[in-house]
Amino acid sequence: MDQYRPKLHFTPAYGWMNDPNGMVYRQGSYHLCYQYYPHSKDWGPMHWGHAVSADLLHWEALPPALEPCEQGMIFSGSATLNEKGDIVAVYTLHGDAERQGVAFSRDGIHFEPCAENPVIENPGIHDFRDPKFFRVPGESCVRLVLAAGDRAHFYCSQDYIHWQKTGEFGPEGNHLDGVWECPDLFQVRDEEGREHWVMLVSMTPNIIQYFVGDFADGAFRLTQRLDHAQLLNPGGDYYAAVTFDNVPAGRRVLMAWMNDWRYAGKIPTDPHRGAMALPRELGLKRINGAWVLTQAFAAELFEAAQEPEMLDEEQEVGQTFLVEAYAEGACCLTLRNEQGEELHFGVDDQNCLFVDRTKAGISDFFEGFAQRLSAPRLMEGSCKFSVVYDVAGIELAADDGTLNYSVQVFPRAPYTQLLCENAEGTVSQLN
Ligand code: FRU
C-alpha cells in the first residue's frame, strides 16, 4: 500500500484520477480539480476531485467539486474567475451526448451547477468536449475552446451562460491521427518579450501536439506552418496537459496527467491510480528558424530543493530528489536498488536524450512498458538538464526545456544508489 505514492506529484488519497481540470489561481491558492472516481481505482462515473496548494507542489485535498448528475458524468473542463472573484467552472456533461455545463463557486470549495445547464448543446458531433476558458487581452467577453472530433471550436460569452460559436481550427495544419481532446489556447512570451498564441491538443491515446499562431476574428490560425508535428513531449507518460488560469506575473503554468491511456488502468499502484506531472512554466525559443515551446520546471520546485551536493560517480539517494546536470558529450545516470533493478537516463552518443526503463522494475502489466525512450536533441554541444525523481517516476527538462520526458517506473524496492558517468552537477533532496 502506498509504496508508489510520490511526495511532490499530486495523487488522490484513494481511487482513480485522470486529466487535470478547473485549474485556476485565486487568493493565494492554486486550485486543481481532476477527473476522479472515488469508489475504485478503475475509471468510473467521473467526478471532479479538488485540491489546493500555495506552491503547486504540496496539496491539500478538498471535497469533490462536482459529482455525476442526471445530465451525465462530469468530464474534463476548466475554470476562471468572474468579475466578483467567484470561480466559474465549465465542463462536459457526458450523457447520451456530450454537452457543456457551468458551475459557480463563491467560497472556492462548494460548486453550484447552473440551472440553465447545458449551456452549450451538442451540434450532432460524437466527441464534443473538454472546454477550456481563455481571454483575449482588452476584451470584456470570456471565450472557450473545445474539442470537436478532428478539430477545435471556439465560443464566446458575456455572462458564462449564453454562448456563441465564433470559429473553428483544424483539421488542416494537423499532422497526426487521433481524436482531439483537452485543447488549450493561450499567449506565451518569446525570448524577446513578444506574445504568440499557442494551441495545445491532446490526441488519443497518448500524444500532445502544439501549434503556434494567432487568434483573430474568433478563431485560431497558424502563423508557423511546418511539415511535421510539434510535440509537447516525445513519448512517455504525459497527457491532457492544460494551463492554470489567472496565474500572477503573467506566468503560463502547465500541468498534465502523468500517465498513458494504454496502461493507465493496469499500473500497480494502490489504493490510488494516477498522478499529475510536476508544474512546468512555458516559454518560446527560436531554434533552427522555428518557434519551439519550452517547458522548464516551475520555479517553486527549485525553492523546495535542500542543500545541493556535488554529483559523484556513486552516491546514496533518497526517494525524492533533484539533479542538475551538465554534460559535454554522451552521459549516463543510473538509479539502482538492492534487487539490481536499474533506471538509466542521460544523453547517448547519437545526441538523443533518453530514459531507459527496460529493467527498472515491474513492467508485466503491459507489453511495451519496459521500453527505452529516446529523442534527438534540438541543440548541439553541451547539454544542461534538470531531473526530478519522485518515488515512482522521473521527469527530465533538457536544453532550456526544449526536450522533456515524464516517465513512470515501479521498482520492486526503492532505488538507493545513483551512479553518474560523464556528467557534472549537483543533487539535492526535495522537501
Ligand atoms: C482525456 C479524456 C477527456 C475526457 C476525460 C474523461 O483523457 O478522455 O477527453 O473528458 O478524459 O475522463
Structure description:
1% of the residues lie in helices and 51% in strands. It has one helix and 34 strands. The chain folds into two domains: 285 residues, Glycosyl hydrolase domain, family 43 (Tachylectin-2, Chain A, 5 Propeller), CATH 2.115.10; 125 residues, Exo-inulinase, domain 1 (Jelly Rolls, Sandwich), CATH 2.60.120. The strands form seven sheets. It has a six-stranded antiparallel sheet, with no helix packed on it. A six-stranded antiparallel sheet has the order 24-33-26-27-28-29, with no helix packed on it. The mean pLDDT is 97. The chain starts with 14 loop residues before the first strand and ends with a strand. The longest helix has 5 residues. By secondary structure, it is mostly beta strands. The site of beta-D-fructofuranose (FRU) has 13 residues, from strand 1, strand 5, strand 9, strand 13 and strand 18.
Percent of residues in beta strands? over 45%
* First-to-last CA distance: 22 Å
Which fold name is given in CATH as the topology of the largest domain?
Answer: Tachylectin-2, Chain A
Give a list of the ligands: beta-D-fructofuranose
Given this structure, which CATH class of the largest domain is correct? Mainly Beta
Order of neighbouring strands in the sheet with most strands: 23-34-25-30-31-32
Oligomeric grouping of the chains: single chain
**Radius of gyration over all CA atoms, rounded:** 21 Å
Calculate the mean pLDDT score and round it: 97
Query: Helix share of residues?
Result: under 10%
Low-pLDDT runs: none
> Main sheet?
6 strands, antiparallel
